[in-house]
Please model this.
Amino acid sequence: MQGLTVPHLYSSCSGDSSGLCRGQVELDMEGALTARAQVGIQDFVLLDETTEAAFLSNLKKRFSKDLIYTYIGTLLVSVNPYKELDIFNKQQMDVYMGVNFFELPPHIYALADNAYHAMLAEFSNHFILISGESGAGKTEASKKILQYYAVSCPSTALLNTVRDKMLMSNPVLEAFGNAKTLKNDNSSRFGKYMDIQFNSEGDAVGGHILNYLLEKSRVVHQNHGERNFHIFYQILEGGEEDLLHQLGLERDSQRYIYLTQGECAIVPSIDDNSNWKSVKNALQVIDIDAVNTNHLFGIVASVLHLGNVKFDSDSKGQAALNNNNAALRWVSNLLGVDAHHLQEGLTYRKIEAKTDQVLTPFTMDHAVYVRDALAKAIYGHTFTWLVNRINESMENTDPSKKTVIGLLDIYGFEVFNVNSFEQFCINYCNEKLQQLFIQLTLKAEQEEYEAEDIEWEPVQFFNNKIICDLVEERHRGIISILDEECLRPGDATDLTFLERLEDKMGNHPHFVSHKLADKKTRRTLERGDFRLLHYAGEVTYCVVGFLDKNNDLLYRNIKDLMCQSKNAIVRQCFSSMDPESRRRPETVATQFKSSLLKLTEILMAKEAWYIRCLKSNESRKPGQFDEALIRHQIKYLGLMEHLRVRRAGFAYRRKYEVFLQRYKALCPATWPHWSGPPADGVLVLVQHLGYFPNEYKMGRTKIFIRHPRTLYATEDAFEKCKHELASRLQAKYKGYRAKGEFKKQKEAATKIETCWRGVQARKERDRRAWAVKVIRQFIKGYMTRGQAKVTDNSEYLAFVRQNYLNKLKGNLPKTVLDKTTWLDAPHVLTETSEILRKLHYRLMVRKYVRGITPQKKEQFQMKLIASSMFKGKKDSYPQSVALPFADTRISDQNINPRVLQMIGNEHIKYGVPVVKYDRNGFKPRPRQLILTKTAAYMIEEARIKQRVLYTNLKGISVSNLTDSIIVLHITCEDPKQKRDLVLQCNHLFELATKLSIIANKQSAVRVVQGSIKIEIQGDKENTVDFSTGQEPMVFKAKNGHLMVVATRARPR
Ligand SMILES: Nc1ncnc2c1ncn2[C@@H]1O[C@H](COP(=O)(O)OP(=O)(O)O)[C@@H](O)[C@H]1O
Ligand SMILES: [Mg+2]
Model:
């Protein structure tokens, strides 16, 4: 640990439970901070203790629930799940778009989105550093970020082509720069820094890529179980027959020495064939034309052929190469260089001494070394050329100011059993990035303190600057010493380099070698090893190959040859190396050092975001959490260091407004509203909560809280209080809703009422208008009712007609006899009315007639006869009309049987009791008068007193008065026979009618005035006189006549 100590920061972390539960309120804080509701803790900064065990346990807990992301402040820790999780889709992107970091569970999209919005808001540049071991998910992470921007940034057709180019640069660079290794089937063998440029509207308008240290050695050598770069296999698997023919290739990777050393050309997880198609398509998208594409494939093929160039040993043991060597011919052919010169370049070194040139032949080993060096050089340069072409195609030439987000996908710390020059460079790179992180974080922290006016409290952490210096310091650093050894004349070897190191580094605390180590350490070191104590741990390097790799030499004559290549790409690449320059090119380490320096400068000018990727297990299996492996990575990625730096000062800080807004409910003075400045409100609040003075600091705009536990206690109290608050809010809200609902209903009711009234009023108005019209028409019609039918009166008349007919319907006469009931017709209907009237009577008559029985008919016929005889003639007739005629007035039972016996066969037609006045003296004698078919009989008891044959009946006379005397005039030849009969009968009209009918003597009936002459016997005559008086009487008058007095007829 170095300097910068603030002991009290750590010393107060243990002990009592923060003192927050003291006092009245049970305290409490934010962030359940969404976090604690989830599995584990979302932000390691809020971890109670900053131990590795606690860190690991939290990570494990979350990983077991597929929560692969966790924050350390704004740094994102990502654990490779080795399985597809459903959290990288469009919906998730939408969820995270524009949302603040802490509001949602940790996600790579949250980080990408926050960087983007910070960039837009502040118009500042940013970078996202993605680091981690090979296979930890760095490249996947960078792709996810790129996809997020591709989807979430505004887009236009033009922008889409830029976007496509950015996305499509990936398959090309992966084909040429990625390979299957033991750790990752798609391991990036180069470092990549990609700038995405945005205009002020936030549109992605361009991009730029910087590449670092391609692992060229892979072109000529692969470890067992690893492959060369993907492109070689892709071209052999996917290349069309024509193409292969043109390149002199056979579709069999086993034929190429550069592809067979790892002995695993075929990998199940890699589809070389379909990747080949993607690469070809991508090449088009990034604007590489057909000619260059051909050259590119020519180079790939030439490397394969170069690997197959075999040397023969001549008699002196020097390397010889047959001009006819097929592989050599293909190389010369594809690279467009002279075969002879190529053969020479691969077997001789040309040394120019003043004016002379001396050719020195190579040993066999040397020739192979030169061949491989050429292959590596060609491939390495081509890769750089590709990156440049991609950059040209993504370049944005618009001069307006842009901001960028850089994506750094770079190899993480590497520790193998045997570590060589490459690991040295890579680990050095990680030291530099750690240094950068420390500087940026501390800077940011310090700036915040300054801005908030809080006294800077130095932070305790390990500063790795000492290691960076050890490696890179001018003249004294490892790289300088290495370069010196490389350039030194004489027999410099890897071991002399180690000796020089030991001399110079003698007592450096981070450097150990076999010679310098104490006894115990020495046992763990070989003689050719040196060990560096990196910030992330110890790494032992084996010096073998350091010099060669650092030199990366290519002899001059070969370089010259390449500059004449007919393959434009090769020519271009080698020409740019400035072959005329006599100066030695910079060594690899120095180049790398300067590129890192440049990178550091680039990054220092930007705001940093970090993603640390962890591998969950070595076997790439989902769901496995290899604790040892992860602990190791936590260490190498410096996560604990990072956490400590973050936690060194205050674990939690928030703007006063935000803090107050969240926790104001915890203090009566701040609830529901705090009217003063938020800072004062927060002070009142935390004092009410009982914070100790050393637990927090009040900045200019933020409150700083030292320990997470203080925050948690506050959050717990808030959780509790939330329920209460919730029910209060609920009640209020319900009230509010109900009130609103009521108001709404009331308004609705009023509205409906108004509408309804309107409707009614309009109806009424229409009705009145209609009525006025109708009345007016009615009056007009009335006034013109007498005229011919015109428009004015037609309706009126129709109304009158209808009205009359309707009324008539209810007032029709009910009986045929009713001749008076008939509604008077209006003028227009007089004629109709008359017709109707007649029709109606006809109808009634018809009905009546149909209803009459035969008896009644007979009765009527008789009444008709009676009428013809007496109507208007005899005064008592009218009273008799209504009295029906009976069939007979004496039933058979009332006729003496003897009489019946005597006349029974004559068929009795009618019988009636009468009073007979004697012919002499006019004494009244009661008799029965029986009418048969042929004669009338006068019966007294059992005797027939007189039989009058109808043939003898001469006439029937009655008076015109109201009396009931009837006289039958009878002729008789026999003078002794009784003659006329004077009878009184109560049924006078009935008797007279029946008799006249039965005897067929209607014409013989006479109605007489004054008196009737009667013949008695022989020639004897008498008279019946009629007069009127007070009392009806019949008596024999003094003159011997029969006097009949009748009462006066009542007037009808
Ligand atoms: N977020 C992820 N979800 C699922 N699988 C992943 C994820 N990240 C990485 N992987 C798996 O791990 C492999 C290695 O990832 P990669 O990004 O190539 O590692 P690195 O670039 O760190 O070497 C990928 O091919 C993929 O199978
Ligand atoms: Mg990668």
Observations:
- The pocket of adenosine-5'-diphosphate (ligand 1) is lined by residues 80-85, 132, 134-140, 184, 186-188, 613 (CB under 6 Å).
- The radius of gyration is 70 Å.
- The first strand starts at residue 69 and ends at 72.
